[in-house]
Queue: 2 jobs
Job 1
Amino acid sequence: DKGNYKHFMLKEIHEQPAVLADCLRAYADGGALRLPETLDFRGCRRVTIVACGTAYLAGLVAKHWIERMARIPVEVDVASEFRYREPPVPEGTTAIFVSQSGETADTLAALRYMKGKADRIVGVVNVATSTIARESDIVLPIHAGPEIAVASTKGFTCQLAVLALLALKAAFDLLGRDPAPDLATLDRLPGLMNEALGAEPGIESAAQELALASDALFLGRGAMSALALEGALKLKELSYIHAEGYASGELKHGPIALVDRDMPVIVVAPTDPLLEKTISNMQEVMAREGRVVLLTDAAGAKAAGQGPVRVLTMPEVPAILAPMIYAVPLQLLAYHTARLKGTDVDQPRNLAKSVTVE
Ligand code: F6R
C-alpha cells in the first residue's frame, strides 16, 4: 500500500526516519550495543565486505568507519568480481555480505566461496528468512521493513546504520573504544533525517534543471565519495540520465574533460576537514562553466560563496551521520528528476528487485 504517496519509492524515502529508529532500537540500548555475542572482533585482523550495487556502496562507506574507528584494514568488492577472482583469504578475516533481498546470486556465490576460509560470515540483510541469512554464521537484519520500489532507499540507509554499529563493536572489541558517545550521536539520526527531508521543495526545483541534462557528474570525498557513486547510480537507474560518480580528487585525472556549460555537477560536501579541498575542485568545475549543485550545510554554503547555481542545505550533522543524511537529498533528486521525465519510478526498465541470476 502506497498510502498517500504517488510511488512506493517516495513512501520508502519518507519512511527512513521511522525505520532507522526501529533499526537503532534493535541494536542499541541506553548507550550500550546489543549485537549478537558471537560477533566478537577480538582476533580479527581484516574485514572483507562483498555486495552488489547500492549494497556495495554501503560497504564502501563502512570501510571508512571500520578503518578509522577499529584500525583494521577493510577490503570491499563487488560480488561478481570477488567470486571469480577467488582471492586468498588471510587468517583472521571476518567476511560481511550485504544484501537487501538476501537472494542476490553473485553475493550468495561469494558467501559460499568464503565458507571455511573466513573466521566468520556475517550477513547484513533485510529479508531475515533469505538464503544469505540462512547461510551466514551471524545475521544482522536491518529492520527496514519491506522495500517494494526496485531502487533501494531505506534499505541503503538501514544497511549503513547496521554497519556503523558493527564498526563501533569492532572498535570496542579491538581497541576498547567506548561506543556510548557515538550511540548518543546515532540517537539523533531520525530527527536529523526528518530535517533533511524538509529540503524536498528545493530539491524539486533542482530536479527541474537536472531533468533537461543528458549527463551529470557527482563528486565527493572520503565516505562522501561513496555517496557520489550512490547519487549517480540512483539518477541513472531512475531517470535514465547518464551519470557518473567520482572521488573529487579524481576530477583532474579525466572527468574534468567532460565539463562544459551543459554539465550539471552535484557536489556532496558536508562541512568536514576535507571541505576546502572539495571547494577547490568545485571552483575548477565552475571555471569551465560547469553548473554546480552543492549539497552541504549552512557553514559549507558560506565557505563555498557565490559560485554554485544552486545550494541544497542540509542540517549540520556529526561525521558519522553524514552518509545516511546525505543519501536523502540524492534519493529525492533522482526521484523527482525521474518523475518529471515521466519514467517508471518504482519499476525502472530492465531492472529487477532481486537479481537471482548472474
Ligand atoms: C540500486 C539497487 C541495486 C541493489 C543490488 C543489490 O538502487 O537497488 O543496485 O542494491 O541489486 O541487491 P541486494 O541488496 O538485494 O543484494
Note: Residues 214 and 241 are 5 Å apart (CA to CA).
Job 2
Amino acid sequence: KSRAKRFEKGQSRVTFDDVAGLENAKQDLCEISDYLRDPSPYRRLGAKIPRGILLMGPPGTGKTLLAKAVAGEANVPFFSISASEFIEMFVGVGASRVRDMFQSAKKEAPAIIFIDEIDSIGRARGTGLGGGHDEREQTLNQILNEMDGFEPHETVVVLAATNRPDVLDAALMRPGRFDRKVTLDLPDRPARQAILNIHARGVPLAGDVDLVRLAALTVGFSGADLENLINEAALLAGRKGKSEVDMQLMLAARDKVVLGGLREMLLSD
Ligand code: ATP
C-alpha cells in the first residue's frame, strides 16, 4: 500500500514574469512577496499583513501558478495541499496533516502555504454531506484554528484557491482569516497573446504562425487551455514528423481543445 504524501513542500522558481496578464492580482500580491522577503520595514510601521488570501477564479486561470510566483518572488518555501484529498480520508487524518503542515511552515518561516480547492471542505455548513461533524468540517476547523493561532512574529501567509467562492462558509472570511480576496478572470485578448508567447517560448514555430490571430481566435480559453493548445500543436507536429509547428497545426490544436472542453462538459452533466 502506497503511503499518501502528507503535503508538498518545495522551493518555487516561478516568478511574476511567468504569469501573463492578471495585472491587478499581481499588484495585490506584490505586497505579500515584498513583506515575506523582508518583514522588518512593515513591522516598524506597525502594518499588519493579511494572513489569508482567497484566490478566486475559473479553473485554469493561474491560481496555483500565482501562489507559486509569490513564493518564488519572495524566495520562501512553498507548502501545499489540495483540500479535495481530505474528502475521502479517515476522520482526523485531514486535521493532523493540516497541523503538521502549519508546524513545518512556521518552523521554516517566512513561508507560503497554499490550499487548493478550499471549497471542497469550506462549504457553508448544512449544504454538505455528513451534516456537521464530518471529516471536512474537522479539517476546515483545524485550518481556521491554525490561522487564528498565528503569533505576530510568525510570517506565514496562507493562500487558498477556489472556483466556487459562492459556496464558501462565511466563517472563512472573518478578519484574521481569509479576509483578503483576489479575483482572477479568464484572460482577455492581450493576456491570451501574452500567455501564448510564454508557452511558445521553447517551441520551434514556422514563419506563418500568427499568435496575435490565435489570441483573437481563442475567446473563452483559460491559461491552462492555451498551454494545452500549444502542447497539442507540438504533439501533432511530432506525429506528422515535422520539425516546426505551423499555423494549421495551431488551429487544429485549438479545435481539439475546444472539443475536449465540450466533451468534458457533456460527461459531467
Ligand atoms: P485549477 O482551478 O484547475 O486548479 P488554477 O487556476 O490553479 O487551476 P493553474 O494550475 O495555475 O490554474 O494553471 C494551469 C497552467 O496553465 C499553469 O501551470 C500555466 O502553465 C498555465 N497558465 C494559467 N494561467 C496562466 C497565466 N496567466 N500565465 C501563464 N500561464 C498560465
Note: The chain has a mean pLDDT of 89.
